[in-house]
Amino acid sequence: MKVSLTTSDYYDYYFNPVSIFEQEITASDQGTFTGSIPLKNLNPGWYEVDIRLDEEIIVRGSFNVETYTKPAYKIELESGKKAVFAGETVKFTGKAAFFEGTAVPNLSLNYNGSQVGKVKTDDKGEFIINLNTSYDGSGYGYYYPTHNSIYAVPELTEEGEIEGGASVMVFGPKVVMHTEANSEGNQGLVKITANKITLDRINNSTAKSDQDYLGDLLASAEIKGRIYETIWEKIEKGEIYDFINKTTTKTYDYKEVKNKIQDISVITNSSGEAVVQFPIADDKYYTVELELDDGEGRISKESRFIYGKMGGYPWGSSSDYYHLVSGKEGENSYYKVDDKVELTMMKGQDVELPSGGENKYLFRLAQRGLRSFKISDSPKFEFNFEKDYIPNIVAKAVYFNGKTYIESESSSVIFDRQTKKLDIKIGLDKDSYKPRDDVKLDVEVTDNNGRGQKGEVNLSLVDEAIFKISDQSVDTLKDIYTTLNSGIISTYLSHQYPSEYSPAEGGGCFLDGTKILIANGKTRNIEEIKPGDEVVTRDGVKSAKLVSAKVIKTYKHSVGQYLVINDKLRVTPEHNLFVNGRFMIAGDIKVGDSLLNSKNKWEPVFSIERQFGKFTVYNLEIKDKSTFFAEDYYVHNQKGRELFADLAYFGSVKTNSDGKGSANFKLPDNLTSWRITYQAISEDMGAGNGTKPLYVKLPFFVDVVGSNEYLSDDKPVIKLRSFGEELKEGADVQFTVKAPSLGIGEQKFNKKAFEIAEFNLSNLSEGEHKITITAKSTKYEDEIIKAIKVYKSRLTRKEANFQQLTTDTKLTGSKIGNTTLVFTDAGRGKYYSPLVNLSYSYGDRVDQKLTRIKARELLDKFFGNQDFLQSEEIINGANYQTPEGGISLFPYSDSDLSLTAKVAFLGTDNFDTNSMKQYFYKVLDDKKEGVESASIALSGLAALGEPVLNPIEYLLQIDDLTELDRLYLALGQAYLGNKEQSREVLKSLLESKGEEFKPNIRLNIGRDQDEILAATALAAVLAAGLNDDSAPGLFGYLQQNYTKDILTYLEETAYLTATLPGLPQINSKFAYTLANGKRTEVELKNSETHKIVVNSDELEKIKFDNISGSIAVTSTFDIPFSQDDIAKDNNITLTRSFSVGGTQKMDFNESDLVIVTLNYNFGQKSLDGCYQITDYLPSGLRVVNRTYSRTGLTYNEDIWYPYDINGQKVSFCTYKGPTLIPVKYYARVVAKGEYKAENALIQSMQSIDSFNISDLQKVKIQ
Predict the structure, then answer these.
(1) CATH number 2.20.130.20 given to 419-484+644-696
(2) Is 3.40.50.80 the CATH number for 322-415?
(3) Ranges assigned E (strand) in 657-753
(4) Which residues form the Alpha-2-macroglobulin domain (predicted)?
(5) CB of 72 within 8 A of CB of 98?
(6) How confident is the model at residue 1200 (pLDDT cuts 50, 70, 90)?
(7) Please, which residues have CB within 8 angstroms of residue 503's CB and are 6 or more apart in sequence?
(8) What is the CATH number of domain 175-307?
(9) What is the model's pTM?
(10) Looking at the domain covering 515-630, what would its CATH class be?
(11) Distance CA 977, CA 967 (A)
């Protein structure tokens, strides 16, 4: 079998992931396998692992690589009640302890969330917080129940991020209304059911879910309210002018006009029910506000909306769907082998379809292909669940009513995997261990009947502190028996009336009602999305640009549980969400994490609930992008799992026929609780898993708070402290510190138990150092060695190198890190995509129409794309040529001189050439026209073959010609054959006005980007005609940047017309061999690229052969730099500031939460597209991953979250646009001292040459 590793950053031309690591593995005789993937040289990010048998993927998983600092200890909080009514006081009890159980006494904590304050742990590490809840009667809708939370963090600095939190459900009124609103004809209906609220089941843990709080029905209760009628009034506010299409469009504001039309008063019947009914109009919508008094002055409020026909959906109501019903629910909905399955085809919730007569039914069973079928005259279908159907069989029905065929939803009949659940017992030879102890671990595996099972048990021991950063979820039984799809690719119905419903099948992740952002900026329920619909997503993980993407498949499935995140996102635990700048599974999310919304803002997670039962869920498959927005949160359409390092042991134990086995291993130095995660598989595919702690502790130990890396200019303070179950309050402790490589002999500090000793480091030298810290108290002693790295600088920037590929090519790249290699067709193929884009240029301007026609002709001539001629377009030149012979932009506009010349550059097949010549000569004869007009007219005449070389060369002798005049005249020279003098003009312009933004070039002529692009476009046409080396770079700049009020379509088409005939026609091919001997053959067609990432060793040893055609290779990598040795692009600027509590400052206290602000700006001549902003935090600060636990804010629209965190390096991506939003993010203080704040940098993702930095700063923490 082959293991391949890919990452979201690397995709080929067709969005297929590019493998960055491969390995062969062998399965055991039981079919199990283990392996490892080296994380060295992997950048932080999301990686996917595929394990293939031949070409079939049999296992797919994912993991994150990230830099992190483990928390030294944990804070745990628990609320005294799970639910209360507002006004009650809730007692939260907490404890601070190391992971092996040792208490952290006398620890000062800050707490916030629903209440703010300070508290201190006692000698057992315990503390109490009393939360006072209050009632708020304002607002309508689902205000109650809400979640009140408390989060505790250490007041003073810690190296790792430490926090603890808990929440309580708070209910307001003691009554609740459940409402259903809809319209029937011209009537609006609101059905109401009123109940009392009881919290007993939630608090005694007998509730089915957190929503199980309904008490007795409320009879004879008065419900009051109001009905409002709303329309939108259109108000003209101004006009905007479109410089491209030369049109003026009115703009409007829309004012909501809301009028009360009726007061409501209804009384509930004996069943607690009431109905509100009222007439509605098609062009309005209505708001129904309802109020129910609980008898204690608290009002339960609900607000419902009803729309006229303008609010209806065209695909019908939920009662129109057809599906198969089994009659089983919840835990009883699964089947054992040989169980009888009984299905009935239904319409909607309760309409059973008819039997006999013309009614016929076709039932089908499938699993990765058709298994069986049956024809019947009854809607009922029975069969036995066979062993071959494990893990599931997909049933589907087709109903023929005598006129048309109707398909049902697919229904997955699922195996009861609990019959295969194994019981695993883990035994340890000690209750707790010391560092470096030997461990003997015994395993016993039994089935449901207690019989021993022969098989294999995988064991992993991971530091529990790692799971405080990001937890791990394991369900081996579920993974093995994951449901399979039907394998039916398509179906065909011969007699089909137009259908309003299209069923789907497969694995799903979101519950019905989940709002999906669609292409028109609105939302639609996920169950209403169909293949072919357009949804909105991000252009990429690192890009804030929103784009449309097509839904290519929908899925529907049943699950046993889901999560409710922030009271709105209902998602299964295994689904991938974009959290804290990376994808991770929903089951691993914690309160305080941040989710990304469609506005590129981070929303903290403030509540997570878990619901159990049987639920229908849905998912979407998105073409190319694989992502979309659900409830305005950025999500992936796949599931994944976390993988962690910091292992004490990883291996497998084989059990005998009695189900017993054992393992022996040695522990490392960590004082912690190791989480033993065990997963067992038996020979008959039974499975199970679980966890068990293994404690490693000492009666007395030393703890060190300090960073693992510093800059040589830093002056850090390291904190030393002592703990232990045998350490008593007031006991004397002596610390000794030595670090010979830093010139530190022995320095001693005397403190009392649990007190902090501070040690100053200065005169740090570049390199790796070891600091030995010893602590003594009475008969106890402990020593640890802390390794640190000292850098002169952390600053790196992107560098790119461009080479023509040959068999002798020696690639340039990183000497220590990874290098990205991108291979492109440097021949004819690289112009395929630009031609396709031009062939679809939209609009009725003459340059748009002519471009479409010429581009499609070029595609057919050079790429054989007949498809582009099927919608053949003809331009009637007479409509765009004025009586005087010039070309007009629109049929109704005047002649445009420069436009006429550019049309002449392309040829005049569609126009009267003689009239065009006369137009140019008339311009030359007009004494009112200046040199600029004469230069343009002469270039046009030259393109038409007129003998005007002498006047062109005469004008070129004039001293005060503008650069554009010289360009037009040089074009005229080239068209008339005087290419050498024309080349000299181009060379002179490139030397004086040319700017290189590798791999592109521009002429910096004019006041803004439009004028630069106009000049660069003319230069590209000239360079193409001269076959000059600058031509591809000039054309590349046009492709990477965007005009605002002009178009350069004609110049781009003229460039391609001149360039394509001189390029080889063959497709580019090559092969490369990596250091491991693996050889890969690649063919590049039609603008394709091939991308790989290599480490420094592979870069040195990569070999190329079998090269045909013209291939360019770009290597991109990070290089160190200093502020004194870079060329800055002054078209972009970046400044940085630090602030606390709204005040800018550079001196901080230990308890400060710092906001780092990065202000950037783009000049009118700056490059378009995405820019990467990278900040390097001072060594005494750390990025805050979970802002909610420290700020108590559920949402802060100003705060950004970096897409990449690599130690002190944090990276963001922003776009050049009309609105510039400063980058702001939180940082926390981790250590006292003085620290260098190295320059932040901004760099164009289009060209590494567009680059600038902020000023160097220093911060002080005391």
Answers:
(1) yes
(2) no
(3) 660-666, 672-682, 687-696, 701-705, 709-711, 715-723, 732-739, 744-752
(4) 647-737
(5) yes
(6) confident
(7) 321, 322, 323, 407, 408, 409, 410, 556
(8) 2.60.40.10
(9) 0.73
(10) mainly beta
(11) 15
